[in-house]
Structure formats: structure tokens, C-alpha cells
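Our collaborator T.R. sent over the components below with a one-line note: 'Predict the complex.' Nothing else. No constraints on interfaces, no templates requested, no preferences about which chain binds where. So this is a plain run: every listed entity goes in together, and whatever single assembly comes back becomes the starting point for the next discussion.
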Amino acid sequence: MLVELVIAVVMGLLFLGIHRKVIARIQGRPGPPIWQEILHTLKFSFKETWVPRTASTLLYVGIIAVAMGIWTAALYVVLAGGSILILFGIYMLHKMVEHGVGLSPGSPYAKFGGIRSVISASSEIPLFAVIGGIYFFTGSLMISDLVAYQADNGPLLLSILPAAIAMYLVILSKMHYGPFSIVEAKEIVSGYQTEHFGVWRAGLQIGDAIKTFVLLYAFVLIFVGQLGPVLLLVAMLALLVSLSFICAVSPMLSPYDSVTVQMVAICILVVWLGVLVVIG
Amino acid sequence: MEKWKVQTMTIAAFIVVIGAWAAGLVGLIGQGATAALLVVFFPVLCLGMMLWWTLGKGEDDLPFMGY
Amino acid sequence: MASAGVAGEPFFALPFGDIVNYFTPYTAVLFGFALLFTLICILSRPEQQLDVVFGTDAYYAKGVTGKELRFRRFMSIACGCATMAAMVSGDVFNFTLFVSMVGVCIIGIVAAVKSRHVLDAAYNYGIIAIVATIPLFGGAAITLATTGTLSIWELSAMASGMPLIAKMLIIVGVMGEGIAPFYAAKAELFRAPGAPYVIMIHVSSLLMFLRVVEILLTV
Amino acid sequence: MISGYIIGLIVVFAGVALTFSAFLKERDDVHKLILADLTEIAGLAIIALTATDLAEALIIPGLVVGISELLAVSEIYLTREKLFFQPEKLFTIEVMDSAPGIMGAVLVIFGIILSGFTGGAVAATGMIFYFLCKGHKERFSLVETVSAYAWVLWIAAFFTFMLAPSYWFFGVMMAGGAILAKVVAKMSLIGAMRGESNA
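Returned assembly:
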């Protein structure tokens, strides 16, 4: 468990580095080396650190531990083949991390990031299309059951493509530099993370790393099935590169457009679910 | 928070994390218990390790208010 | 136990007659999260919100002090307790009651803020929250009338389970208490200073939503 | 039976639809609040349609939550509109000077005869009427004390049921009397609290 956790942190940071590298190459820049995010995290953890005078101290510090803790729990759920309902619950609880990080320091920029994270709540709704679709098809939400189901019936990716697309959208809306990442847009400095510097930012980076790893891993497990270590890594990398590609070629949407696009996606998914229920 | 408190907390968290992992490996405690302990103490350990060197270096200050 | 495929095997149950409060891994995670934020509300002092005086370099801090602080802390703790209760409740009607109680507490958390903007948003939210109690109670009552029980365990064991109309009513009610299309007013509530208390607003309604998904998949 | 239930549901939902259409037209905030309360009553009606003993037990918590939501929202309205001052005299009619004592007494006695929740509500109406006419200074601590003791009696009655079931009749009478006193005390406080310095 501990070994997997450390692997998840390192691999997640590496994935984030690859993400930046791919975006840079697509945009014709050299980009940072792929281990840059690991170096970042190390660098941040040696920086001068304090708590802003206006901050709500316990929340300011505690929310970092929450960020790492919930994704550690998510990693365990995926490894143990637990319920994807828990996994998605944790994904939505991550929203609270954004609010807490944004609202605790008292900075107006961070606060804007937090408020934007409230209005982008629509990015979570496709999850329920995923859950609904999977439950409808397989009759179970346990990852272990899903893996067994796919071993018998072939990958779910082909049979319930809309659900896969929905989950893909969900992961996309949490990637850095993506079209939906309005919570960390540059016009509000660094969004909700503006006032978390030094060690606090390093902690957020670790949480982010586990999050990236868990989401990619969960996508592969849920929609492709159990693979060997090498194939698994290849699948996760392919998924990541496709996400990076979308992030590289699409502009960041304005908050209003971002919500609108997600709403349209939700409507399409709801119609699909309705059709499923009617036909089934 | 004073330095010695953070350092004590870090060492305690380190012992718990390693202990939970080892106990989980040899089967003293269940998988769920290992996971629960790790979820609580791994973040403490991470923050504590990073704060080990840097704590108390800076004065607290107002947030960033623009360029 | 029919819900084992949804939220994992329950590992602790506390029966009161036919109504069983239970912890599955899923509800335990949600319960722990609510407990954590309630503790933060109890222990943390609120943040002071900094604001730039428009058009100048000056800035000022909006603090939360004295009576207002005590009231808001109390309301957010009450909100946390109601959330925790809703997380472990094994009874549809109790769940809807706690959901509407969370609605009351959310109004209470921002009621003491002296900002017309925030009060406006809170008023609109309150009206929606009151109206949302009809589908909530209606859903529970229709369940009772058609199946004769409100216990989630018994409903999940039944072949027919909860009627579809009741399910839809309950989900509409929970949405009205503050998620998805009705969150616009809540984004405005977030502009009030006093971080841990304000965050409780969203923690509670998010957890409600996560729980209702589990309930509706189970029954 | 089920068809009657469905007819009832249809009627209630038609009522809800009516209030919603009123909602769409209404612009005034206070009126919106009142309409919201009306819809709340429709919610209670749906519970009442179940028409079992359990439904009766469900209505009371529903009512309590509804009232507290209404109080919270109206409190926000008062803060927002800065309505902190009580009007001098709400309204005066002749009967309020001549008859409060006898009316109050009749209602309270009738309530005691009815006993239980219903009796509590009737008796409380008598109390409210009395307080409304005669003023209500310095009586809260007494009413609160009565309410608290009634609560203790009620709990004691429940313990009687659980520990000594053979004394059930004693328990029933104690619970009925206590709930009567409690409902009377609480309801007579509702209208009277606002604007007092010790409220």
C-alpha cells in the first residue's frame, strides 16, 4: 500500500511533467524536461513558508492534508477494487479542496478562484451519466465486478462509449491548462492556489499527482479492464497524451462558456441515458 | 507552531505510517485499517517532512494584493 | 443486502426497530468528511477577507467578530451535525428531514452577514429551499403509501422498491436544496467573509447529493 | 382505496401547480414568502394522504422544519429591509378588551379535555389570544420552565413504557398531559417573542 502510494506520487508528478512537455511540443515550444514537476515539488518544499496574517489558519493548513488524504483514499479504493461511487464521491469532494484552498487565505484572487469553482460545479454532473450507464449495463458499481465483467464480455469502452466520453470530459475538466480550468486562470493570478506557496504548494502538488494517477488508472480499469503493468502504463500514457493534445489546441474558455459547454454535454448524456432506459 | 512540535508530530506520523504498512504486510491488521491509517497519517508525514527545514523562517504577512 | 454492489458491504449497523442506520464504506467516507469539516468549523478562526479599494492602491479587511462570529459558528456546526445525520440515516423520511434542516442551517450561516448582496442571495435561496421541501416530503410520503415502509434496507430488499415518481421527486428536492441548476444563488453566498463557515454551505449540499445518489441506486 | 389516494394526489399536485403559477407572476418578496409557505402546506397534505398513524407522526417533524425555514427566511427579510422596530399597536378591536379572559379560559379548558397534540394546539390558541390582548411582559421564564418540566415528564413517560410496560395507562396519561403542556407553552411563545429585549 505504501509502496503503491509512493509510486503514485512519483508517477503522477511525472505524468504532470509529460503533460506540460506534450503541450509545449504541440505549441512549438521546447518545454520543460518531463521531471520538472518533481523538481518543482522538491523546490517548493525548501522554500520559506508561513501562513498569511488574514488566513483562517487551521483551514489553510488542514485543507492541504485533506487534499492528500482524499486522493490517498481514492487510490486505495481503486487498488482494492472498491465501489466507483466512492471514487466519484471523492472526486466531488475535491471541489471542497478547491473551495477551502481558495477561501481560507482571505486573498481576493484566491477567493475568485473559489467562487469560480462553485459555478463550474456542472463539470461533475457527467459523473452521474457514467455511474448510471455503468450500473445499467453491468448491474454493479464495484471495480472488481467491472474488471470481472470485462474479462468475460470485452472492454466497456466499446459497449458504453458515451459513458466513457463523459468520464473523459470529467478528467479533462480537472487537467491543468485545459479548456475548463477556469479556477486557475491567469487573470486571477494563480486562481485558488494564489496564496498557497512553499510547503503548502508542494503539498497541493502531491495531492494533484495522486489525483492524476488515480483518475487515469481508474479510467483504464473501468473502461478497458485489468492489464499487465507495461500495457497499463502504455494505456495511461496514451490517455494522458490525448488529453494533453486537447489542452494544447483548445483555448481556455471564459467561465460562462465553460459552464455552457459542460451543460450541453450533460444534456446530450441525459438524452442518451433516457434512450437507454426506453430501449432497455 | 514551534519547531519541536512539528518534528515530534512528523516522527510520530512516520512511525505510524511505517508501522501500518508493515502490520498490513504481515497481516496483523486488515487492509481497510492500513488504508485508513495511511489516509490520515500520510498527509501529516508529507507536510511534516517538508516543514522540517523551513518552519519559522518567515514573518507572517498580508496576502498578495496585485502588482 | 442488495446495496453491496453499489456502495460496498456495510460494516456497522445501528437498528432502531425496522429503521437501521448503517455505515457502508461509502457513507463512512462521507460521514468522515462531514465530521472533519465540522471540526474545522469548531476549531478554526475565520479568515479576514481583503478587498482592494477600487481605483486605488489601498485595501481593507472585512473581519467576522463577536456576536456574529458566535452565531455563524453555531449555525455551521449545526449544519455539520445535520449533514452527518443525513449521511448515516437509514430512513428515507429522516434523510429528507435532515436535508431540509441543512437548508435552514445554510440560511442561518449567512443570515448574520451585513451585506445586502449576500442577503438577497440568501433570501432567494431560502425561498427555493422551502419550495424544495414539497418534492422531498412528497417523495418520502409516496414511498410510504405505496410500499408501506421507509427503511432503506427493507426497500432495497423488495423486488419493486421505491416507485420511480418518488425517486424523481426526491432528487428534484435535493437539487432544490442547492446543487446543479440551482447553485447560482449559492455562488453569491460564497462572497460572504468567514471561510470555514461559508464552506460548510457547499460541503453539506455536496454530501447530500452524494448520499441521495447512493440511496436512489440502492432502493 | 388506492384510487382515492391517486385522486387526492392529483388534487394536491394541482394545488401545487396553481401556487407555482402564482410564483411565476409574483414579484413582491413578502408575497413570494407567503406563497412558499402555501406550497409547504401542500407538501404536508401529500404526507397526510398516506392516512395512517405513521403519517401523523411524520407531519409534525415536517411542520417543524417548514416553520423553522419560514422563520429563518423571514428573519433574513427583516435584516435585509432593516425592519428592527415593532409597530406601536398591531390592531385593536372591542373584543380584545372585554373578553380575553373568558375566551382564553374556554379554549384552554376545551384543549385540556381534548388532550394530546390537538388539545395542545387548541389550548395554545387560547393562551396566544390572552397574551395578544393583555400584553406579555415578564412571563417567558415561567412559560419556559413549564415547557421544560413538561418535556422531562414526557421523557419519563417513555421510560415508563420501556421499563414498566404494565403501567402503560399511567404512561399514556403522563405523556398526554406533558405533551399538552409542552405544545401550549411552545406555541404561546411563538407569536410573543419578537422585539423583546430578553428574547
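Summary for T.R.: The radius of gyration of chain B is 16 Å.
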